[in-house]
Every structure is written in structure tokens, then in C-alpha cells.
Design goal:
Blueprint: H1 4-14, E1 21-23, H2 30-43, E2 45-50, H3 58-68, E3 72-77, E4 80-84
Parallel strand pairs: 1-2
Antiparallel strand pairs: 2-4, 3-4
GO molecular function: RNA binding
Pfam families: CRS1_YhbY
Keywords: RNA-binding
Length: about 100
Amino acid sequence: MLTGKQKRFLRSKAHHLNPIFQVGKGGVNENMIGQIREALEARELMKISVLQNCEEDRDEVAAKLSKGAHAELVQVIGNTIVLYKESRENKQIQLP
């Protein structure tokens, strides 16, 4: 689990990132979770945007994605979800 200080640190790091994935009408599926897992291994920190036409609640989407990708949910702000997962081979972010 991340501490409040670590979450603040990750939020500041994620601030200038652009969303890589978009969750739309289809909602969350296995294929998307697999791709997000791979992207998190490469990047550790990422933003995902929830589109207007998504039928699921954004908090539900965030919970499904973080659980499926075994990642920490850093923040849900507006229609943007921020996820973090420590990379095994490609560690870039040093948490405070």
C-alpha cells in the first residue's frame, strides 16, 4: 500500500503525463487489462481517461483496472485515473 506522502509524490509526477489508454463504451475488458499491465511494467506510472460514453462508473473502472493490473490506484480526478505499479526490470521511480 502507498502512504499519503508517496501518493502526493506520484500525483506530482503524473501531472504532466498524457493519458495513454481510454475506456469507452465497451468498458473494461481482459485485453485492455493485459495491455495496461504491460505498459505499467514499462512506465510504472500512467494516466487512463474514462470517456463520456463509458457506461460504467469511473470509480468502478478504476477499481477494476487497479485490481486486474495488480497496480496501486493513485488518484481518480475528473475522468482521469492514475495508476502506479513498481516495475520488476525497468525501475525508474524512487518513492520517498
